[in-house]
Amino acid sequence: MLSYNDHALEHPEYMEKLESYTEADKARLVSEEYGPHLPGLGSNPMSKIFVLEKI
User: Fold this and answer.
1) Cβ within 8 Å of residue 8, ≥6 positions away
2) Do residues 55 and 27 lie in contact, with contact meaning Cβ atoms separated by under 8 Å?
3) Rounded distance between C-alpha atoms, residue 20 and residue 25, angstroms
4) What ranges make up the beta strands (E) of the chain?
5) What angle do CA 40, 2, 52 make, to 5 degrees?
6) Minimal CA–CA distance to 6: which of 51, 38, 52?
7) Which of 4, 17, 21, 46 could connect to 27 by a Cys-Cys bridge, CB 3.0–4.6 Å?
8) Strand 2-5 versus strand 46-54 pairing type
9) pLDDT for 2 beyond 90
10) Which of 47, 50, 55 is nearest to 10 (CA)?
11) pTM > 0.90: yes or no
């Protein structure tokens, strides 16, 4: 499991690296969800959480 906050998502190389693992069949993307990074805090940045399974 890993997460990229909005700041990381602004840099395409992070998603490119993740995609390189799934495209090379090193990992399978089980799920992803976009939502608040730390729910309950005032001005809260968002993040995308990924669940991967090693192949």
Assistant:
1) 14
2) yes
3) 9
4) 2-5, 27-36, 46-54
5) 130
6) 38
7) 21
8) antiparallel
9) yes
10) 47
11) no
Number of C-beta neighbours around residue 10 at 10 A: 9
Selection from 31, 36, 32, 33 nearest residue 46 by Cα: 36
As a whole number of angstroms, the distance between CA 43 and CA 39 comes to 10
Instruction: In whole angstroms, give the CA distance from residue 12 to residue 9.
Output: 7
Single-letter amino acid code for the residue at 50: F
Helix then strand then coil, % of the chain, to nearest 5 = 30, 40, 30
| Domain encompassing residue 21 | 2-37+44-54
| Number of structural domains the chain divides into | 1
pLDDT per residue as tens digits for the range 8-38: 999 999 999 999 999 999 999 999 999 887 7
